[in-house]
């Protein structure tokens, strides 16, 4: 039995323990717990249809009363969804469809045999790997803030409490002063996970000392980096952890009001967060007299309009106030004068999700993880040219090579790793030379990039680094609020130059002009967006200058991406510059397969193509796309 939340309001750790015991007792009456991933990726892949088919199959088998079916947040394996985890067996089923459910219920739950046909397959051995704990993608992670995502029902207050939820809040309210909470955060060494890496303890200390009768805590969930979806996954899969982190932060600095500023593009996250807020209020964990104490704290959601610049804290504050989302000069800093003129502390989603973990286990324990200057773990969103895309959580200090090749599974189709973009539009690139580089704040800054919020985009040999820089500049220029001239005009001029270069219209001096414009933006822009806008340009020039020079001098794109510089991808890849009469006509007629065989039949360089060349043209030929 679960408590009647209209009557039961926990006021101590003992009360929380009672709730946890009741939940566990109820779950133990079930032979199996079936966990259906309902993160945004799995929802778009049809997980709800899979769940409905699963429930129907359980009814048909007469197992509905002895089996619990729960929706959870994102397990992290976005490339495998929709997924189903069968507990306590620990078996993971992947890429499911509704028609698979009958067989899984009959074979696994009735006959106790794993359905290996729907399990993850090891790409090297080609053998199925049923157990979640044996899959490298999960086995090599250290899940702290993502521990409940994929393992705990996101909509159940009892389930959250049963997994140590609100224990940190109870501990703080029962016997810790505000100074002691802040000291614990200082001891942990936690740095802001939103990109800047500012020490959280120091920020909270400033908020605590700030003068003002009313103070505000803000959760920055305006996640706008291309390829980043860490905050979304946490909000969807573990919303109570963010609320608990905000409650502890509010207690520490003496705040009574909290805001979650979340992107309008995250309707699922908003919906689940709203449910969690209502539950917390019903249980007496938000509002006046939190857990029966004098401490009062409530949370409201503010939905952003989708502007990337609103991730910058001063622009975010203006947006929360209902004003145009434009940054302002600092000082005054938010902790001095923030939202509605009140002292305001702003932390991002992942930062706040770390707070309950630290309070429960102690700052010294957290500091023992990661590296001396970058403690704890970091959540990354893996995207791009890799086998395993999705969300991972790894200790700070793990090497780039371990992430790309061991956890992400390496580069598909036998291609070679070329670069990884960290920090989104504000970051830079790492190359093969950096595969042994530890991923932490200081190491990345030393290499000319940043941690950012945790987006990690992997590129292979088919990526043109000039085009990559153009892509990020196009994004930044479009997202610039236009308030200051260096960002408004500087990013536009850089984008124009990069576009000219990718179209074969580059000229001598363009590289130097790009470097000058990027430096001017960095030194004179108002906010972090403009100050870091040129980072992708500077990074790619520093590491791949020869590609820029080839585009400008030779009108050649070695990756075969900039289509204005060649007639066809396969001809562009040919080291001998083969051009067979009639070839281009066949391409223009939409007959790439015939064009391919024409080159093989009437090859004008048989000695080169037959004996020396490795046929890079075949990798670029579009015949495979036609066959598909």
Shape: globular
Estimate the strand proportion. Answer: 5-15%
Q: Please tell me the overall pLDDT.
A: 90
Structural class: alpha/beta
Instruction: Enumerate how many helices there are, as a single number.
Output: 28
Q: Portion of residues in helices?
A: 40-55%
Give the end-to-end Cα distance, rounded to a whole number of Å. Answer: 54 Å
Major sheet strand order: 12-11-15-13-14
Contiguous low-pLDDT stretches (5 residues minimum) are 1-6, 604-608, 624-628
Q: How would you sum up the major sheet? A: 5 strands, mixed
Tally of strands:
15
Radius of gyration using CA atoms only: 27 Å
Could you provide a short overview of the structure?
The chain is α/β, with parallel strands linked by helices and 628 residues long. Helix content is 44%, strand content 12%.
Task: Report on this structure.
The chain has 628 residues and is of the alpha/beta class. It has 28 helices and 15 strands. Helix 7 packs parallel to helix 11 (239-253), helix 8 packs antiparallel against helix 9 and helix 10 packs parallel to helix 12 (267-282). The protein is globular. It starts with 12 loop residues before the first helix and ends with a helix.
Give the tags:
single chain, 628 residues, alpha/beta, five-stranded mixed beta sheet, four-stranded mixed beta sheet, globular
Task: Please describe the topology of this protein.
Elements: H1 13-28, E1 32-37, H2 40-44, H3 47-61, E2 67-72, E3 84-87, E4 91-93, H4 101-110, E5 120-121, E6 128-129, H5 136-139, H6 157-162, H7 167-175, H8 178-188, H9 200-209, E7 216-221, H10 230-237, H11 239-253, E8 257-263, H12 267-282, E9 298-304, H13 313-320, E10 344-348, H14 349-361, H15 363-367, E11 377-384, E12 390-395, H16 400-407, E13 417-422, E14 428-431, H17 441-446, E15 455-460, H18 465-479, H19 485-502, H20 510-524, H21 528-531, H22 535-554, H23 569-573, H24 583-588, H25 592-601, H26 606-612, H27 616-620, H28 623-627
Helix pairs in contact: 3-4, 7-11, 7-14, 8-9, 8-11, 10-12, 11-14, 18-19, 18-22, 19-20, 20-22
